[in-house]
Amino acid sequence: MKLSHSYNRYQRQLILKGFGPIAQDKLSNASVLVIGAGGLGCPLLQYLVAAGVGHIGIADDDIVSLSNLHRQVLFTMEDIGKSKVEVAKKRLQSMNDDVDITTWNERWTQQDCVDHFNDYDLIVDATDNFSSRYLINDAAVLMGKTLVFGAVSQFEGQVAVFNYPTEGDNRSVNYRDYFSTPPKNGEVLNCSEAGVLGVLPGIIGTMQATEVIKILTGIGKPLINKILTYNSITHESYMLELEKKSISDNLPSNIENFLKTNYAELCGISYFGIDEIDVDEWDKQKGNLLLVDIREAHELPKLSELPHLAIPLSELYNRLNELTDANVVFVCQSGRRSLQAVMMLKNEIILSKAFSLKGGVDAMLTQKII
User: Is residue 191 among the annotated active site residues?
Assistant: First the structure.
């Protein structure tokens, strides 16, 4: 790093005791892959770019929607409908054009991990679903990459550093030492279903960025073999010590087995053969389809302007008589529980045809159906 070019930009970091030009050089020569450009990804990306991390990769297959804007602070009203990674790259480079940014507008897969993890010094999990978390963790363990983890739900968030190199050839705990077995599908709701306080991902994402900077520069003590939980309502936090289990516990034994693992199925999501219908197609055929909202009564927004039947998923099986001989489209907030509903009832002859509305109420909002 040439101080003549960078001193003014990074001056407040450079004058820190124990930081200085050496730490700044480490950041400018580092590469970090961030998987997820949503609530967690937005703040952590901004701070990594502002800090001067030299190369950043961003992967996300989603587009910006109105429901993102209360927490995904890289995006504006003008970005609705646009690719998150494309908008993020443009906005981040306007903050710091010294940073090289590579993007993938796609859902991250096992093959992506194998192809690209070794190009980066550090991996950051900023995703919001269990299948992605286990996939990213397992790849990090098998490929020997340190992983900075974050998660949020409702009013609480968690941060940890997994698979960090320790003495000898050993590494610290990984996500499977914390959750060895994935929860069943629908057992733990994601943000679109359980909700999240808008500022919380900003706090947790910034904590993740702090861990990244600490690891890359060698300052401070990263969250190794522990997980930090923060409650935004009480401002209370606590640290949980984690113990390492056998590396073979539920983890693919090698890259070949990793590539063969079905992470959606592993997390109880097995939707092969389940019929989905997107919002445009539903809008064309809605006169012939019964819309069934399977969200809980407290979930918003209501579908009051649309003809529909409200039956929470927990009551669905006992209220099948209300759907006799109907062509049904189940809708939830994001399209996940509606897939579960179709799968649950696919063998019920009482239904003529059952579909899941792809993207759920979030997709309706994006396309201004409601």
Answer: yes
